[in-house]
Write the structure tokens for this entry.
Amino acid sequence: MENKIYDYARKVNYYETDKMCITHHSNYIRWMEEARTAYLNRYGCGYRKFEEYGVVSPVLSVSCQYKQTTTFEDEVVIRVRIKRYTGVKLEFGYEMTNAKTGALVFTGESEHCFLDARHMPVIVRKRFPELDLILKGLVSDE
Amino acid sequence: MENKIYDYARKVNYYETDKMCITHHSNYIRWMEEARTAYLNRYGCGYRKFEEYGVVSPVLSVSCQYKQTTTFEDEVVIRVRIKRYTGVKLEFGYEMTNAKTGALVFTGESEHCFLDARHMPVIVRKRFPELDLILKGLVSDE
Amino acid sequence: MENKIYDYARKVNYYETDKMCITHHSNYIRWMEEARTAYLNRYGCGYRKFEEYGVVSPVLSVSCQYKQTTTFEDEVVIRVRIKRYTGVKLEFGYEMTNAKTGALVFTGESEHCFLDARHMPVIVRKRFPELDLILKGLVSDE
Amino acid sequence: MENKIYDYARKVNYYETDKMCITHHSNYIRWMEEARTAYLNRYGCGYRKFEEYGVVSPVLSVSCQYKQTTTFEDEVVIRVRIKRYTGVKLEFGYEMTNAKTGALVFTGESEHCFLDARHMPVIVRKRFPELDLILKGLVSDE
């Protein structure tokens, strides 16, 4: 299966700016979640799918590199891909660009695990082979 | 029982400002929640108490009047009181002042009902006489 | 000129939910801003226009009536209109519906004034006749 | 000068939880800012000081490691220290613990630079020797 990426676009809201007149840095971590959600929906393993399996996927770690500022009404394009999937952990990569200028404004990563209804770690590879197959197919080496 | 009010103080955070260099207006509604939570804890019917009863208390309506702006590092004092309690609905009033200048910066109200675990409306007066008594005693006519 | 309304749609984000598993009530006030911004852009008097005039338009008051809950991945359609414009003050009305069920989930209002660069109140009617004309034409009696 | 650390405590607000019934991960990055602000105020180089110099200090990068969940009404103690200061860049370290259990819930880092009023990079070492001296004295090797 070809490498999968996804471009999620959204405009900066007024309430996301701060008194430096730029997007407050805490919002990018929320945009990562928005883009990740849209990505997983697009590739058939969205939140509903996870819910069917009784699985939640909390965040283990996040890293953010701020390259350029953005501000109110800028359109930001968030390119998401799965960088790594081990059957137990999942790692996303994010590149955000300013839609108008094309400039890279942000790069980031997030790492996730899987928990079942009793909040115990899940080995997706063993418990949910179908989901495992989808996620394996989504890993992008690029 | 004497009329009960409560003063909850908190500083404006950097991430709560916007590009007009003032506190974004959406934050005041969150501060109302913070102050209401502290108030209910103070008077023995906090979140834990509600949880024991299996009751949640969602917001039915909110109104906000912005009198003066505030900004980063301002200390805001939020005076909370219960304006009305009918046994079915609860209404809070809020007055926020700038701690330094004493100026009134905000007034607001919020109205709440009570739902049980099955999300059905609860008549507190009938189902939880103990809680009913506490809430009745907290109403402030001022 | 015909009455002007605008429908702005957006999905509920995961980070907008709370531990009651519903959209936290504070987010609706932010969605009102999103919808108001889109409305003004649509009708030729967006933020850039206001900036050209050196005018900002802070919020004087907000009221929110919560009719039904929404949650993660629900699509909410926000119908915005200008209810009143006096030449000095501007009032927006909002009706939010669940796109899937059509149910009314929220109604709200917001009231705004106009300030110039020195943060002094502006009588738009006198200082900016062009903007005044646009705003007058947008008032919807419906 | 002895190594400087600072403990900043705060309770989790209701509006900071999500539908997993835990603190949404995006809030920790805001708490880092709250703690960093309190730290700098405590050691005489708070926001006002920076403003006097005409200097802002944007975030270059952030990393977050989530160790344990927290939720509404948990008190979180945020231990802040300056890990590195080069005269051009500043790096903070954060360790958050649950006040009740003492458990480590989060570790993080943030990296900052300095910009002047024209948004040009500032070499603090050269331009603001007094501020440079304070920051040097705050670096904690621990």
